[in-house]
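Hi support team,

I've been running sequence recovery on a batch of backbones for a student project. Most finish fine, but this one hangs at about 90% for roughly twenty minutes before it completes. I'm not sure whether the input is malformed or the queue is just slow. I've pasted the structure tokens below so you can try to reproduce it. Let me know if you need the job ID as well.

Thanks,
M.K.
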């Protein structure tokens, strides 16, 4: 530890020291402890200070810890796949429906993607037809909603899932599942009292 008497704490006026050690922080709803972080700390009140470069390194390290814990794609893997598909960062952002510069931040490791975005990218990596549907906007057309894009009839939750499978595995379900018959019971005060 190196105490710098020339630097004073902004909070209490105490002396600032340079140190290396673990830094706990909350990063996008995740509690993370980043080990071996170089930073400044007030000897008196414990206030922690970072240079811009240190703060960026801390953010990258925290994102990498969460990405690893969650089993998410790395920024390098996203960049490689995007480049192989010939997409620009902006085109991938549009296909995934994420904000401007989001893919840049994922690829640089500054933030991690949501589990939903990660799953969607993994589907698109494995099944290029998914990426094509996302890029063309067919997902939001009347043809897709009526099932014409997927060549089967009325869309239900089951048929939407079947449609995704037909995109990803190249098959069209031969039959639709039968609806589940549910017995309708009338609930009366006597029935409630008897159950209690």
């Amino acid at each position: 530890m190196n105490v710098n008497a020339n630097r004073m704490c902004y909070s209490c006026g105490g002396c600032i020291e340079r140190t290396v050690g673990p830094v706990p922080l909350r990063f996008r709803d995740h509690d993370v402890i980043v080990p071996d972080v170089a930073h400044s700390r007030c000897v008196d009140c414990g206030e922690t200070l970072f240079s811009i470069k240190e703060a960026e390194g801390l953010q990258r390290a925290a994102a990498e810890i969460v990405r690893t814990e969650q089993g998410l794609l790395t920024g390098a893997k996203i960049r490689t796949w995007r480049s192989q598909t010939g997409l620009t960062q902006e085109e991938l952002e549009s296909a995934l429906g994420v904000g401007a510069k989001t893919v840049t931040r994922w690829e640089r490791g500054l933030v991690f993607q949501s589990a939903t975005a990660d799953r969607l990218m993994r589907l698109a990596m494995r099944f290029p037809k998914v990426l094509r549907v996302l890029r063309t906007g067919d997902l939001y057309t009347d043809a897709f909603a009526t099932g014409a894009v997927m060549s089967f009839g009325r869309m239900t939750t089951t048929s939407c899932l079947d449609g995704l499978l037909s995109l990803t595995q190249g098959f069209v379900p031969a039959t639709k599942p039968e609806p589940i018959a549910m017995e309708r019971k009338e609930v009366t005060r006597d029935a409630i009292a008897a159950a209690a």
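--
Follow-up from support: It reproduced on our side and the slowdown came from queue contention, not your input. Residues 2-70 form a domain with the Ubiquitin-like (UB roll) fold (CATH 3.10.20.860). No action needed from you.
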